[in-house]
Amino acid sequence: MTSADAASSAAVLTGFTVAITAARRADELAAILQRRGADIVSAAAIHMVPLSDDVHLRSATEELIATPPDMLIATTGIGFRGWVEAAEGWGVAEPLLQSLAGARVISRGPKATGALRAAGLREEWSPASESSEEVLAHLTVDDLRGRRVAVQLHGAVDDWDPVPGFLDTLAERGATVVPIPVYRWEPPTDLQALDALVEKVALSSVDAITFTSAPAVASFLMRADAMALKDSVHRALTTDVVPFCVGPVTARPLDRIGVESVRPERMRLGALARIVGDELPRLRPDLAVAGHRLGVRAGCAVVDGEVIMLTPNSLVLLKMLARDPGAIVTREVMLETLGAEDPHVIEAAVARLRSSLGVKELVATAVKRGYRLAIDDPGVSS
Question: Cα separations (Å) of 106 from 38, 135, 148, 288?
Fold first, then answer.
């Protein structure tokens, strides 16, 4: 790869605006995306309740110490480690691990397995897929009937179930389920930044949005509903704004409302950043127009790799022209969209757009009809 190719690869997200909703490691994700040229807007969609202050977790821990479980299901490494560390802070780590030592231990994946072993516990089984569904497939009625089963949960927003149907299925198979709400989530204490982010998505003012946990998705959607922007956000996420999720569990709240998301094969932050860099330019490709490359982004235009900032009206016109590249947009439609009545307003607006883009030939005039992008396609006529 030449130095020019490397620079081009590093700048694949030039002009794209990516929203980040993570509460943890948001700066790390932002830095990776910025190195590839992206602009970042960030607002935590959730607030993590400090483990040492979580009365629900402490109560569940004391309950397990008093009545040890027959089975422990550990779902995440960070969650299990955090639970043990919180117990150490309360001075009950040793009795907690003693209460778990006699239980059958199921681990949902390698990270949970590592945390279990570090605490001196040994798993009897772990699914290859890291999926809760495979755990349910493995555990039969005979495994669960009459058993007391502790499930280390990996986060919740209010009463939202982080593993839909998982606890209910265990109970239906005869288990007495003891939920352990490790890393319990709540909506952020300062809603102003989240509200601003929800509005940007509703207005399609970002090109993509990233989610690193299902609670963050749920909280984001709940806030959109509370702001009466539910329909606008849904429309944006199915048209202009590409949602990226770190894995299938994170994507479930979007799946439920019919929103498809892009996700990496590996459920890791680095993999999420890479797939944004790989897939966003593919899903929102530059256009070949009048011998130039034109990228139409949520907040700007990119002409031959150079970011061009546009006025709101110019950006609206450009997005109209790019919605069906090469097709004519009539003056009447432009007038209606801009809320104007005088046809001269459109002529002036198009002139400003051409001037801002720096290449007047990008926007062609369809005489007595309107305007179109001068797509490099011999089959397109004016």
Answer: 41, 8, 13, 54
Cα separation, 285 vs 280, in Å, equals 8
Q: What amino acid occupies position 309?
A: M
- Give CATH 1.10.10.10 domain extents, the chain: 287-373
> Looking at domain 287-373, which CATH architecture does it have?
Orthogonal Bundle (1.10)
Q: Which helix (H) or strand (E) holds 245?
A: strand 242-245
Helix (H, G, I), strand (E, B) or coil at 382: coil
CATH number assigned to the domain covering 3-46+188-283: 3.40.50.10090
Question: Residue type for 48, please?
Answer: M
CA distance 253 to 260: 10
Domain 51-185, CATH class in plain words: alpha beta
pLDDT digits (tens), the chain, 382 positions: 444 444 445 689 999 999 999 988 899 999 999 999 999 999 999 987 878 888 989 999 999 999 999 999 999 898 899 999 999 999 999 999 999 999 999 999 999 999 999 999 999 999 988 888 899 999 999 999 999 999 998 754 434 454 568 999 999 999 999 999 887 778 888 799 999 999 999 999 999 999 998 889 999 999 999 999 999 999 999 999 999 999 988 898 999 999 999 999 888 899 999 999 999 999 999 999 999 999 999 999 999 999 999 999 999 999 999 999 999 999 999 999 998 888 889 999 999 999 999 999 999 999 989 999 999 864 443 3
